[in-house]
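ENTRY TYPE: paired fold submission
RECORD: A
CONTENT: sequence, then structure tokens
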Amino acid sequence: MAILLPRTSNGLKICAKCFAASVLLIFLAASNLYATDFKVVLTGNTADFENPADIFPIIENYLATKPGPMLWVFNGDAFPEQMTIEQVAEWKRKANGLLDRNPELHMLLNQGDREWLDSGKEGWKRVMALEKALDREKHQRFQLFLGHGCPGPWTVSFPMLEVVVVNSQWWNHPHDKPKPSSDACTIADTDNFVEELEGILDETTDKNVLVISHFPVESLGNYGGRFSAASYFSPPLIGNALVGFRQNIGTDRDISNANLGVYRYKVNGVLQDYSSVILASGHERNQSVVQKDNNFFINSGGVAGGSFIAHSNKAALTSSSAGFVEITYSSNGRVAYQHWLVNGVQVSKKEAGPIFASACENASKGTANALFQPCNPVIKPSDKMDTPRPEPATVAAGSEYASKRFKEKWFGKHYRDSWTTPVNVPYLDMDTTFGGLVIAGKGGGRQTTSLKLVAGNGKEYVFRSVDKDPFRALAYELRGTVVSQVLKDQTSTQQPYGAMAVAPLLDRIGILHASPELFVLPKDNKLGAFKEQYGNLFGMLEERPTDKIAKPKVFAGAKDIEKSFKLFNKLYHDHDNRVDKAEFARARMFDLWIGDWSKHEDNWKWAGYKTDGGELYRPIPRDRDHAFSRWDGIIPWLADREWGMPNGENFAERIHGLRSLMWQARHLDRFVGSELTKADWIKAAAEIQNAIQQQDITAAVHNMPSEIYEKDGREIERKLKARIGDLQRYAGEYYALLAREVDVVGSNKAEYFKVMREKNGQVTVTVFDVFKQSQQADTSKTYYHRVFDPVETREIRLNGLGGDDVFDIQGKSDQSILVRIISGSGDDYISDRSEVGKGGKQTLIYEKDPNPHHELGTEAREVKPVDERYYEYDRNAFKYNTYLPIALLTYNPFVGFAVHGGVTFTRQRFGKPDFAAKHSLSASVSVKGNYEFSYNNQFRQLLGKWDGISQVTLSRPLNYNFFFGVGNDTPKNNDLPSNYYRTQYNSFAVSAGLLRQFWKQSKIEVTGSYELAEGIRRNNSYLADHPDVFGVEQLHLIFAKGILNLDFRDRAALPERGFRLQLTQQAGHVSQSRNDLASISELEMEQYLSNHSKNPLTLGLRLGGGIAKGQLPFYKLFSLGQLNDLRGFKRNRFTGESKGFLNTELRWQLTETRNTFVPLKMGVRAFYDLGRVWAKNDPDSANYWHQGYGGGFYITPFREQFAFNISAGTSNEESLLLMISIGSFFR
């Protein structure tokens, strides 16, 4: 019998008493079942049947084979779009009848894209309607996971199997769906989903794990980008582009699309930390069983008919026949698959094979099941410790952080002395401490080793290692590389015993917290199965705030203990729930004082206390790993610059980077602390100054081990005493950062937002309860009040969320603050009778309702954002403005050594994706006197979805590299000086236009430009000897330019698959030209094909051509050569009025290594190029094509855009021409 666990409450509202009774009933029924095998049948796309109920005769025939206890999974796309709600209910009644006739059968229904109307706009409403209809026909052995459209994860438990259900369509859906602020789900954001999934996998012990997801993360079908050879030619000339689009851009059904790309990356990242997990999908209309690392991916979605599937040597099964996959979980731990064929309603067995071998048997021929090993003896912890250990241990927190002077200079001395100094620490007496401690399980945390313990005093505790390892927190491709080694070493920036100094100081200011104590965990049988891994672990024991214990024992006498994301849900749900804002401000000023820069949402818990109508939550800050963080050394110093890492700050006597110090809590502070005024923040700082005296600081630092006081404690004490005196000033400065843009957030109940524009420019915002009948403010209940000053605040955003809210804006002033109203869902009423003398409209309304209730005067304007997400509140939307400087020293033979410097400024604004504007300035100067200056910008969505772009460049001179004359047969005299053909011209150019980016890498660009250019006649040069070349004199060029770039490649650098087409058209006028109008037309196409082996063989083809009309200066004509389309020849070797070329390349990756100094790909390449130009003055003898060929190798560290290529080319002119490039190959 299936046992629903409490995790199913994610997104579902479950009656606690009903749940407990159901679990008891099901458990009693299940206790006598499943002593043998348990089967899971995976199906998807049953909506493909003419009648979705046609699946039931197939199930009947399968059951006739007497499979025993089993679970039948409908893994999404069970119901077609046209299926009515009544037909869905009838389908469910038939399913219930089947369950009634087969007591060993269970069913599970997950959701897919067709339950969401093929990812349509009304998809969320549809899935809610389906859930309501199916819920009316309940059955205790039918597990329904539509869950209000929430992402999950949910769990269903069987005696030897844990089934984890996720809603991958939530990630994929491009329209309305549950968001955190909608209060529809416990979890409705990606980070908390990942945390919950990791928690499930961490806590599932001695059981198999099966993850159910409609969309695959690995696929061999069309939705996964695998196609037959015929697809590239169907239709001819277009089929390859369509395949490239499906492979790398993706429709809503393809797993390559941007939304599912995030899902696959996140889920793959989680699974890489675990073994023996099966992820089952049902999206592809085929069957496959594929192993990846130590896990398996199974797709089974072709029960109603199959479609193309590629074969792979990694696949144990590939089938495009109608059928399904059955998984058998054996009681000895063996896991196997059975492929079944479907013919009409008849079923028959086909291939079968192992997935995981039993650890109880000889597993040499397969992957052993690491999760479920029933034959291994269960190591039970002993009731009492074997041997008391009264004598303390002498241990060092991290002897591996010892370093020499060179390492300390570059990577910092940090707190290495504290880490390497041995300290005396008692062993933990698990028999007597807190009434006796019993292991409750492994703790969470991606950088800390921890255990959860239950104490005899009725409370829960956690034991955390002092040392940290960021290995699991890194992206998989960086693990085992120099990056992971450096980050591990930088753990020494942390003060290992800092938490012990923090705790007594928090006591002084009345902030809830745990009080850690240092112990060594004894290697004792009382640890049970954790003895070998955790024995002799050096760590800290502290109380674990939780409400999953007897109420009188709950931490700090609270009613509830919530994580941050659950607190947010409570605040979104009901405006009567609130946070003790004064206490929160005090906690944050304390963080500022001690330099704790890591107070992101996961480092807080919240203690809830019942009040009239709601709950009051007090903050419980936790995890003091980064208190007193020391960032010395050259590399950490650079990372600590304002333009470096956004978070982190060196703990010094003075605070230099307030923004980076508080960065990780920037969203939390703006949400929870929205109502706090400057006086509130300064008061919080003053309270800390008044409560903590100099002797308190001394005593707190001495709470750390005495052995490290002289090493680092005295310095920490000095800095704390210096910083506390300036705390009020820092509070005011931090308030100024928060005050520029403020979100006032309501709830999913109705509120009355009263806004008064004062004569002096200030704006008063008050949020009341609202009388539902009259829609008037209930002034007896005030939820928010704050006066905003235009000197401090640039804009205020009122977020209504759900409920029938009222927004009332009044008042007159000469100048005021911009107010944005994001009304949210509900039947809202907006009235604006305010007047502002100067500036544009100062009230902007974001209302999605097509029939809004608005009474607007002269000051308000309705805004229709380009992206519909701006109709909703996003707690994480705020971004700081940034800048990034860069400096380079380069060399090339034309200009010698050159110094380059530049800076890019990125500006943010509400309603703009990624950024609002970018401004880039750069300049360079060479030892030979060349100099260049450029400025370019990009304004996001300046005109609808079109960005504004412009550029200004000044080059004195600009290198054209070489010019050999115009024609396909121009001579190259090797007896002339090497710089004879070197060509330069002075240029001043200005351009401006519009840019539309779409489909990940594709774009349309339309610009107009002006250029003032003049060729330079150097003595003894080609231009000096050919004064008739058009372009030597000063010219004015005015052009319009259009670019269409359809880029369907998997990536721009080192592509393996995909297609690219670029069309460029220019038209304009050149002064002193014989023609009134000149034009330049170009076309380029690229195609990449690779096999799917670990080290792929890639064929790259690039075809292009161009035609120029009218008289153009030589530097605007087409050129072919080393850097442009014809390798094996000098740069710009052939110049003409038209061109044609074909580039071919064969690339073979030889190896890919990850656990090295840096992750590397290495390979070899060979190329063959064909090209020519046409010119009016070409003789008949020039009617031929030039050929160049060669080869080389490449090394790719970290990312493909850093690919370092060395190759040699040859031709009839060049015996050996060395080419070095980074990134692209064809150029």
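RECORD: B
CONTENT: sequence, then structure tokens
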Amino acid sequence: MKNHYLLQLLIAVCAVLLPVSALADSPVRGKVTDKNGEPLAGTMVYEQGTSNGTMTDVDGQYSFTVSSDDAVLTFSTLGFKEYSVSLAGRAVVNVTLEEDTETLDEVVIVGYGVQKRGTLTGSVASINTEKLTSAPTDNLTNMLGGKLPGLVSRQTSGVPGDNEAQIYIRGVSTTGTSAPLVLVDGVEREYSNLDPSEIANITILKDAASAAVYGVKGANGVILVTTKRGDVQKTSVTYNGAVTLSQNADMITLLDGPEYAYWHNLASEMDGVALEYSPEEIEYIRNGGDPQGIFANTDWLDLIFKKVAVGHNHNVSVTGGNEKVRYFVGGSFLDQDGIIDNVWFKRYNLRSNIDINITDRLTLKLDVSGRIEDRHQPGVSAGSSDPTASLDNGGADYGYKNIVFYAISARPTVSPQLEDGTYLGYYNPLIARDQSGFNDKNNSYVQTSATIEYRIPGVEGLVAKGLFSYDFQNAQQKYLTLPYTQATPTYGSRNDDGLLNMTYGPSPHHPTGVNKLTETHTFFRRFTYQLMLNYAHTFGKHDVGADLVWEQSGTRTRTFSASKQDFAITEIPDLDFSTEVTPNSVTGSHADTGRQGLLLRANYAYDSRYLVQASVRGDWSAKFRAGKRLGIFPAVSLGWRLSEEPFMSGTRHILDNLKIRASWGQLGNDAISDFLYVQGIALSQNPDVVINGVPSQSLSTTSVPDRDISWEKTTTYNIGADFSLWQGKLSFEGDAFYKVTTDILQSQSGQQPPSIGGNYASIINGGIVDVRGFELMLGHSNRAGDFIYNISANMSFARNRYVSTNDSENIPSWQSKIGQPLGGVLGYVSDGLYQTEEQVAILPKYGDVKQGDIILKDLNGDGKITAEDMTWIAGSQIPEIMFGLNFDFAWKGIDFSMFFQGAANTDIMLCGNYSALGFSNGTYYTQAFKWGSNPPKYLVEGSWTPDHTDASYPRLTLNPSTSNTLASDFWKRDASYLRLKNLQIGYTIPARLTKKFFVQNLRVYFNASNVFTISALSKMGIDPEAPSVNNGYYPQQRVFSMGINLSF
């Protein structure tokens, strides 16, 4: 090899500097080559049991002195199998190393089977168990972002047990559901709460050639999760355990008590109204001493958030087997406290995977897994990740009101409690946390599958398989809401005794003042049948394969819910303890779904150089009427391994693999409600007609059916290239793709004039969306003696846009969705702040404005600001670019790793995405002192005042003008970030010490997650992955853990 590495030089220097005292009088020399006789430069040669060693030169030659003439030499270089040999008195030892083809021969999980990585023609990415188990986590989805090119993730909440990341493959390509299809061991299942110790591999199928085998559900990409199985080995027991300490990663910085009083008074002064805080009251706030006990300097966030939350997780697995039976049995337990008291999550996992060779040709696989999840929160929820749950459109359920919301709503100038125990403040997070009731959720899962494989005699390579899977889930929720009473001071209003007047009222989360218990039970069942014929055989230079798969699956869901209220005793929360049924609270529903599919796939390779694969799948869906149910989804892919061509033989000492590939395919989507092709009938909840003198419930028709509704179709084009150099030391994978979705299943709601009166189909096939992008992955790994390192980076880019929509034709061109990204925000264009009275007088405006308010542009030129001046002002919060950087180092028993995750081309709206219609944005992060709330520091310190006209934010006021509260690009921020997602250092105790205690491997480690984030939002205390409406966001957690890995 002609290539030189810096590390090779370092090792050579180390070899020269080896202590002379360690050397004896037994010189040895030789040459190291590959199977073609090419010299292997940079091969490490060392004497076992000593520090003696050297490295081959550019001609593969080596020489050094060993301690004895019967020493054992070990030869090691990346890309070749390690080899050891005894000198046995020889002075010359020439060695031919065997190429380690593990990378090219590595088996990759694909749809309904496996393929060697070297012969893949589709776009596939995978990650193995070592990367998954490197850090403790309570949700698997939070470990994937940035680790697999093409996969985009957003974690919008840190609530234990409810912190699942949103996952997208190659972005969003439809207006409906964009979630990828997830299969665990070949069966559609939920995977986020699997324990990472159960998993062997996760693979994502990105292009149509890879995902089209799943037809109906593969349009958004496919995630294949493969769990661990037994092997032919002695029984091995493994234990992994960790203790975790969690704290808030990012949290908004609010005003303290004295600051609040100062800025509130200044806002009052600018508004020309009486000051709310007197000098005496400000002194009470700053130093205490209020005789009434009301005024104080209270840090509500500090009161509700613990310094750290403690958690622990443990898992034990037993693996082993012989030629007849192989097994993997594992169990785990996770216990995670929330950063808020009275919030926790517990999970119990159990799995058994058994493989039985009944005969030499017949194999049976029996898989059983179970999981129990327990979640607990107060009656007022811990936090919200819903970007539509705003202050101004919360609705009757007050869904936006949660404990974190209460903490940022409460004034920091008020004491939490009076001496008599009365809680102060309309939004008091302490009483909401401790006395609002509880919300308990218990989910239990049992998942079973049996697979039988038979290698058919007489036809080599022909295998028949059958799979049957039956899964069931029971979900139970018990939700008790308890009213409570708190006192709210009436600021600026005192009685004859000089005391501040108080208002006593019911809790804001339950204004009726009546306790209520709701119980909900959901029973879910899923069955899957698969029959397969797989054929694979090699005829000389011809590799041929074919698969025939028939699949049928179905689900059944039953839900029942009931509520009672006005309990005399709430200490025993049971429906029997109340006789007052909440009106219209007893409900029930059921839904059955079914689907069939037939797949034919064939692949061919000539001399491992020319590769082709083609497939066609037909799916029948009950979501459409007879005659529309069948969808046909074809795909084809080609590959050319240039590295195997004779004209490339001169590069084989450098080039291990070079492959180019291309694919085309179509996939489908039927993600709509059932029975939209028939006329629906609704029964009124209460009697509303009189028939023969009897009050009766009436029947009414629902929306008009669409008998022509059918499949949404996605066509994907993909080109890619893979190469690796210097026995795998350097590797690259790249893909470029174009994806177009047609006949999108989308709603017509709001698209027709009121005169039609709802006489149109609610869902139709209409609209086109396309996505274009690319993915890159670059990796470098090497070994220099005991020092091993691996550096890899990947980046994904996916940009979508509307090509055609069913929008009304009379909308202004600047409001058209055509060319705009999905998830974009409609609002007003700003033009700075009003600075002079002249600007206020002559510029178009919306409502009453003053100096320091936001100027909105009049796009249609009619001299006023109306809804027609709205346009697309921001893109989606789903990033167009996602990337990851991974560093792994190991030296002797020490290992160290860092993983950086990042995203770019993503926007966040401080005013919230729900303001797409231009309504009041309603967030505390854009309106200081809204409803008396505590504003962020940046909002008041950067606000416009007559003495601070070069301001970042509008004028300081208690009553902002409408132009300040409308959705506009003034509130748009760049949400790009770089996050040190994970850092770990570990040490493996030498085996010579652990084996004395019958321990095969013992490793201890320290791990930190969400260590730091670099973002323009960081100085504001806003997490870039937070939902756009930040009222009540439960922050992501920074987690520190100490753990142990043990096997024997």
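NOTES ON RECORD B: The longest strand covers residues 516-539. The two ends are 41 Å apart (CA to CA).
STATUS: closed
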